[in-house]
Amino acid sequence: MTFFPFQGSGQGTVGKGQAGRVYFSVPSGSLSFWKERLEKSGLSLEEKTLFGEKGLIFDDTEDLPLAIMEDAKSGKSEWTPDGITTNEAITGMKGVLLYSYDPQATIQLLTESFGYTKVAEEDQIVRLATSAAVGGVIDVHLHPEKRGVGGYGTVHHVAFRTKKKEQAKWLPIIAENHLPSSEILDREYFTSVYFREKGGILFEIATDEPGFMTDETFAELGTSLKLPEWLEKHRQQITDILPEL
């Protein structure tokens, strides 16, 4: 999950033309751990069962809608931050809830071109899924009410992963669906194609390769600021304005 730390950005409105809530997977039996941990952070939680899976629904400190869902298929994470063991650690992004201006068109694209299958429907939400353990779920709300407005507390786009050798194959598929797209853009650690589907939601198709371990080891990931070559000359300026974590 990528965050854009734009200083002075106004608060957005979650709604049509956006991804809404983001779901994270955790091992079965760990929900009580996360409930206690998140409540200590001052967050207001709602315990809810979605499509037979127990979860915690909440907004983060900038009103970004999130959920932590128990997932028996998620396995266990190799990451064990302080105070979190492999029995509780988040194993990945389970999926997202989409608020589309045209829900049926969004569902059609995902099922006919992206390989998702409709597996369930409840409370005006259609669940689409693939066999992928991470990112294998997309929920589409059939009757979203508000119009989405970008800003903090909202999701900018949804990224789908692909192998580098297969990325170019997506360009004609996007074109066949009459969706304007970007060219293939080099992000140094991956390459990307962006397009906006008919429901107004911005999608990205990004490659796994070359990956984030081209200039650091697994153990070093996330321990220092990494910049692409063309931004290296601005390192001090960027460092000075980054928020403290």
TrEMBL record:
Supply the name of the protein.
Lyase/dioxygenase
Source species of the chain? Bacillus subtilis
Q: Which PANTHER family match?
A: RING-CLEAVING DIOXYGENASE MHQE-RELATED
Q: Which domain of life is it from?
A: Bacteria
Q: Does the keyword Chaperone apply?
A: no
A GO MF label: dioxygenase activity
Using the record's annotation, list all stretches that form the VOC domain. Answer: 92-208
Domain Cyclic nucleotide-binding per the UniProt entry, residue ranges: 1-67
Q: Does the keyword Nucleotide-binding apply?
A: no
Write down the InterPro entries for this protein, in alphabetical order: cNMP-bd_dom, Extradiol_RC_dioxygenase, Glyas_Bleomycin-R_OHBP_Dase, Glyas_Fos-R_dOase_dom, VOC_core
**Alphabetical UniProt keywords:** Dioxygenase, Lyase, Oxidoreductase
State one Pfam family annotation: Glyoxalase
Question: What PROSITE patterns does the annotation carry?
Answer: CNMP_BINDING_3, VOC
